[in-house]
Amino acid sequence: MTSDDSPARRPIASRSAGWAIRLSKALAASSVTPNQISVASVAVSALGAALLALWAHPVAWLLAALCVQLRLVCNLLDGMVAIEGGKKSPVGALYNEFPDRIADTLFLAAAGAAALAPELGWAAALAAALTAYVRVFGGSVGLPQDFSGVMAKQRRMAALTLALVAQSVEWAFADTRWSLGIALALILAGSLVTCVTRTLRIAKGLAS
């Protein structure tokens, strides 16, 4: 297994976890490709989104929360299998970015539907996509890609996971969707702040 400290690679603490290393080694030794793992993240996200959009029940919300975490595991493993496992492909960068944007949109738009606030869900999805646009733009002008921010991908998904668990508890007391609505509002606001802070860092980097 080899390593890659490329500035275009998102820093993830769980990359050094024993379970992640063992699983990525097993996948690297199999016929599974990193691009297939990336596509699997979209499939898992589509399942979670369908649960959110079609079934207003605590079981659906808890299963959707599990899908959010499985999506993140796929996002972790595709890079590890590609880099540490030595299975990079010429189109790997494409598969690394596009499935993420699809997964974010599926989850956040469906969460908006589940919260009975579809406009809020779509706004959060757009803001999430903008954070990635700003990051990639920084890389396109010769700067290291900036993965920081109050609502970077891992934090967006952590907020959504907690909201789904909280919503399942809230449902036991009232037929309301405050947990999901508040989380989406926070994701929207945090993503916009992340866009601003990343843009300011790009401007500073270009000026220096």
From TrEMBL:
First-tier enzyme category under EC: transferase
Keywords, comma-separated and alphabetical: Membrane, Transferase, Transmembrane, Transmembrane helix
Domain of life where this protein originates: Bacteria
TM segment ranges: 37-56, 106-136, 157-174, 180-200
Transcription regulation recorded as keyword: no
Molecular functions (GO terms): transferase activity
Keyword Nucleus on entry: no
EC number: 2.7.8.-
Protein name as annotated: CDP-alcohol phosphatidyltransferase family protein
